[in-house]
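Work package 3, deliverable 3.1, input record:
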Amino acid sequence: MRRMADIAAIEATLKGVLDPELGSDIVDLGMVHGIHIEGTTVHIRIALTIAACPMRDQIENDVVRKVKAMPDVDEVVVDVVAMTQAQRSEVMSKARRHARDNAEPTMVNPLTRVIAVSSGKGGVGKSSVSVNLAAAIADLGHSVGLLDADIWGFSIPRMLGATDLQLAAGEDRKITPAVAQGIHLISTGLIVENEDTALMWRGLMLSKALEQFLKDVAWPRDLDYLVLDMPPGTGDIQMALSRLLPQAEMLVVTTPQKAAQKVAARVADMARRSFMPIVGVIENMSGFTTEDGRHYALFGEGGGDELANDLAVPLIGQIPLDPFVVEGGDEGAPIVRAHPDSPAAEAIKRAAAELTLLIPPAEDETCTSRIALLAEQLETMVPERT
Ligand SMILES: Nc1ncnc2c1ncn2[C@@H]1O[C@H](COP(=O)(O)OP(=O)(O)O)[C@@H](O)[C@H]1O
Ligand SMILES: [Mg+2]
């Protein structure tokens, strides 16, 4: 009689099967839910995050191919099941930890909270929300950076009245963010062609700009929040972000229009693929109220609520339509500063306060992060010798 393969050897083989989306092997991710050997037939139960996982075939084929190649195995039977909600969130947090462990070093302090303002489509007010949130968070007393990750369609310098600012290189040849209205700002719109900057940006590939903005920019060490105005869509920049800044969390901006299903699916899928947690939804352009109190739901109603429900995250704010948002954007005076008592500004300020409660700055948080900060300070101190 032939020998039987043993469980440990099969498990070792399965460690060679990667979930290409989650970036780790299926054993480590806890996706192997059972191995059963019957003579030369091996039964393997695999749990996927969702049954209709697009990687299902690839994972299944890999499992069969690799285990079948083992001695003493003639047949492999794979039983694919879907994970429970609890198992799924366990896997996602494992994948996040894994991404964090493998993250490439950047100049952004790991304790800086990173908020990536995203949407499924353009024109919903991502940039307006980014600028005003950054200003409102800064007005709460936090140190705030704003990275205009919309490399091709940058609009932040205009919105902050910073079009004549330029980025400068520090002594260490790192780029220093410009400071506009108390916010540390980086944008391709601030790259001006002169001798210094030409040298600085030589070899800059715009497609690599995000990477450069994170690795070659001297972001302040004590930055509490870094807000990123993401480009529209769900492409490469989003994927690069999670690789570079695993602490990033996504804030989704949407309009009140109720046809949000498709957008929701797209955003959720992007978040899943990049293991970026979604911190909440902001509904922008939520109706218009006239001075005599009449309300017009110009772009529909309920879209923000619906999207937040679908994503199982809080609706952090509803910002009404307000001509001052447009004017502020054109004149470089964010509405939260220029018209702080307007309903739109009030809504943004409430959203900023809510956000800082949901993701408090590191020093207010757990003792682990305080210890990490302390360890970092100690590291930079020169040891005294007697
Ligand atoms: N709450 C609002 N009320 C009125 N106009 C708005 C509001 N939010 C955004 N806008 C305007 O809508 C347009 C698109 O906004 P923008 O922030 O550039 O969107 P995105 O960055 O998503 O493309 C801009 O002209 C902006 O001034
Ligand atoms: Mg924009």
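The longest strand covers residues 41-48.
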